[in-house]
Amino acid sequence: MSRAAAPRRRAGAGTALVAVVVAGLVVATQVPDPAGDVGGDVLYAVAAYALVALVLPRLRPVVVAALALGWCWVVEGVQATGLASAVNAEVPPAAWLLGSTFAVRDLACYAAGAGLALAVDAGLRRLAAGPATAARPRT
To answer: How far apart are CA 38 and CA 101, in angstroms?
Structure first.
């Protein structure tokens, strides 16, 4: 990605992050479980993807997805240790970032969210790039 394209990607990632966080809050508070829990986990991974793309806009989408998924899985692992619960007890808003209880299903939801974000990002980047170079007439 060129230096000129990085600000556009950063702006898009920031906009996506805000939209996904709002959607995640709506899902977490308004959609009953298990759909709300699954939707929230998928959106958490999409938000992680948008955050990585915002901070590191020149990374390839597959690397952004790997970092986002890695973060989500690490957070889920921390939940299994009980550390997340201890932090949440001292700082209740941390529960929005760290969650509370380990669930194997969440690992699959995070993979689905990172994959969804990867597909959308890669598709948008292809659209922004325009027609393939091979399709352009030679001069």
So the answer is: 14
| Ordered alpha helix ranges (H), the chain | 5-30, 35-55, 61-81, 83-90, 95-98, 104-129
Contact residues for 86 (Cβ-Cβ < 8 A; gap 6+): none
Read off the tokens for 38: 């699954």
Are the beta carbons of 112 and 42 closer than 8 angstroms? yes
pLDDT digits (tens, 9 = 90+) for 57-108: 999 999 999 999 999 999 999 999 989 889 999 999 898 888 888 889 999 9
The DSSP symbol for 1 reads -
Cβ–Cβ under 8 Å, residues 100 and 40: no
Cβ atoms within 10 Å of 67's Cβ, excluding its own:
19
Q: What is the pTM of this model?
A: 0.85
Q: CA 109 to CA 47: how far, in whole Å?
A: 13
